[in-house]
């Protein structure tokens, strides 16, 4: 049986008839005694957060639940419902939209903060090296809709400072994030404030989450908004609604004439 039982190996769950243990904790001891955010931490990390860590972690999860029907993932969920898909399929369609461009900035910001933390030099040279390797877009800063300030970021950074005072984290990555913000303002000659992705990246880095988990945690957070919008669209009804009303048409680009078709 070892060849079969060893096919999958996990330290996350152990169970047999009448017994379920998650990370070594009987499920009945967890139910009613840990929050959902604490449960996410336990399942992903294998340990339990301190109360101060749990509060900061939950704040990051709450902050990113929704950003309106114009967000591609939310729009995809609503359109999926109008195409007759049930909630689970609508949610899957939406989560699959969360890639490098829409949904990946938090992971990228954690990577950038880590790069700066490991850099042997000042913040400007660290950013120069990042841009040379990754391109000119600085993840986690600036927002095309929320100008001049993304209202979520200052609140989260305030909570990071409180958590640092409580010993939940050491504030290292908060200082890096603020240094990036200051450097960008000097370079551009105007403020380029931290946005939600930059702020949640500070929190996840402060709490010791690996960069790829920042995207996974964002997917969990945004799934709340996705479910809400998919259910709202279900209740509103509507059939086969595309990205624009039917009276609007796309722009048609005629085929370019070549020497053979002229």
UniProtKB/TrEMBL annotation:
Keywords: Lyase, Transferase. Its EC number is 2.3.3.16. Pfam families: Citrate_synt. GO terms for biological process: carbohydrate metabolic process; tricarboxylic acid cycle. Pathway: Carbohydrate metabolism; tricarboxylic acid cycle; isocitrate from oxaloacetate: step 1/2. CDD domains: CCL_ACL-C (cd06100). It is an enzyme of class 2 (transferase). The keyword Cell cycle does not apply. Residues 234-262 are annotated as: Disordered. One of its GO terms (cellular component) is cytosol. InterPro entries: Citrate_synth-like_lrg_a-sub, Citrate_synth-like_sm_a-sub, Citrate_synthase, Citrate_synthase_sf. GO terms for molecular function: citrate synthase activity; lyase activity. Belongs to the citrate synthase family. NCBIfam families: PRK06224.1-1. This is citrate synthase (unknown stereospecificity).
């Amino acid at each position: 049986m070892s060849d079969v039982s060893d096919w999958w190996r996990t330290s996350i769950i152990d169970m047999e008839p009448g017994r379920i243990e998650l990370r070594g904790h009987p499920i009945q001891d967890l139910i009613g005694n840990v929050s959902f955010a604490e449960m996410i931490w336990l399942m992903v990390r294998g340990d339990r957060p301190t109360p101060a860590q749990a509060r900061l972690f939950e704040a990051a999860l709450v902050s990113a639940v929704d950003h309106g029907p114009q967000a591609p993932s939310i729009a995809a969920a609503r359109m999926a419902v109008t195409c007759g898909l049930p909630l689970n399929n609508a949610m899957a369609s939406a989560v699959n939209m969360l890639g490098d461009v829409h949904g990946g900035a938090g992971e990228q910001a954690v990577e950038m903060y880590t790069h700066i933390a490991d850099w042997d030099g000042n913040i400007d040279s660290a950013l120069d090296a990042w841009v040379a390797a990754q391109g000119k877009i600085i993840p986690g800063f600036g927002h095309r809709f929320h100008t001049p300030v993304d209202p979520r970021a200052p609140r989260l950074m305030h909570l990071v400072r409180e958590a640092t005072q409580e010993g939940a984290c050491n504030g290292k990555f908060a200082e890096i994030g603020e240094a990036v913000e200051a450097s960008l303002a000097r370079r551009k000659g105007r403020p380029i404030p931290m946005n939600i992705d930059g702020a949640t990246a500070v929190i996840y880095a402060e709490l010791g989450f690996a960069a790829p988990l920042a995207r996974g945690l964002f997917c969990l957070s945004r799934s709340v908004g996705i479910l809400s919008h998919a259910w709202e669209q279900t209740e509103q009804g509507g059939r086969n609604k595309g990205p624009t009303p039917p009276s609007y048409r796309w722009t048609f680009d005629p085929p370019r004439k070549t020497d053979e078709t002229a």
